[in-house]
Specification:
By secondary structure, the chain is an alpha/beta fold. It has 8 helices and 10 strands. The N terminus is likely disordered.
Length: about 260
């Protein structure tokens, strides 16, 4: 029997994007310090570059350690690409750059240090070599590749640590003060290649000018909470917001009214 009713048009199914990072009601306390993270909820889409600003002790580094599974939350959940983070487990989809690069470098040469991560990821030898060369070329470390990392300057060590992360090709990278030890040339190189990366990035930094150039979203943390979330220029140009949370407005966002040619 043929129906005389008009056929229904099937609506296209909505495209649901899985969050790269999904944090829900996250809490963490140290034995001697309670509520270092206080009911933090945050979703970050794949490919987003998110900067986190806030004074020392506001919870940025603790948040990073919880995201990568180094710390177990007191309450709440963390999911990376829709998979729950297991504290103490290996999470290859996420990489963490420590504030102090000495905490990440231990091999006899720069090349071997960069090689360590991919060499432990069940890759074929030629795949490991390709990743190492990619990371060395991207970070401009060609002339330092055979030198011992402990003979390098602080900025050079930082670039080696970053190269080691890039060689592992994680989907998500957490950068804790990535420009802290860099000179002007290395800082500009870092900005340039970070602008070209497709990885999801979360960057905690006091270098607000750097975040303005690299990030498309900024969070303000204060006493373990996220108190503001928006476009970097909107957040950092808000005088009331920045003053309320003891943050200094970036120089490039301050109007200059002095006539230097008088």
């Amino acid at each position: 029997m043929t129906s005389l009713l008009p056929k229904k048009t099937m609506a296209a199914a909505p495209c649901v994007t899985v969050a790269a990072i999904a944090i829900d009601h996250l809490c963490f306390s140290y034995p001697d310090r309670l509520q270092v993270l206080d009911n933090v909820s945050l979703h970050i889409a794949p490919g987003e570059r998110v900067g986190i600003i806030g004074h020392n002790g506001c919870g940025k580094t603790t948040l990073f350690m919880t995201l990568c599974g180094a710390l177990s939350p007191t309450a709440g959940t963390v999911r990376l690409m829709d998979k729950p983070v297991v504290a103490g487990g290996f999470n290859p989809q996420i990489g963490l750059l420590f504030q102090n690069p000495n905490n990440q470098l231990f091999s006899a040469s720069v090349r071997e240090d960069i090689r360590f991560g991919p060499a432990n990821m069940d890759l074929l030898p030629h795949q490991v070599d390709e990743r190492v060369e990619m990371a060395i070329n991207t970070t401009g470390l060609q002339t330092l590749a055979e030198r011992p990392p402990h003979h390098l300057s602080g900025g050079e060590k930082q670039m080696v640590a970053i190269a080691g992360l890039l060689a592992m090709t994680p989907q998500i990278v957490l950068y804790d003060e990535p420009t802290a030890s860099l000179d002007i040339r290395s800082r500009r190189r870092l900005i340039t290649f970070m602008q070209g990366l497709e990885q999801t990035m979360v960057i905690a930094s006091h270098d607000l000018e750097f975040l303005l150039e690299v990030c498309d979203r900024t969070l303000v943390m204060y006493q373990g909470k996220i108190v503001a979330d928006g476009h970097p220029r909107e957040i950092m140009s808000n005088d009331t917001l920045m003053e309320t949370y003891d943050l200094e407005k970036p120089h490039s966002l301050i109007p200059h009214t002095i006539n230097h040619h008088k």
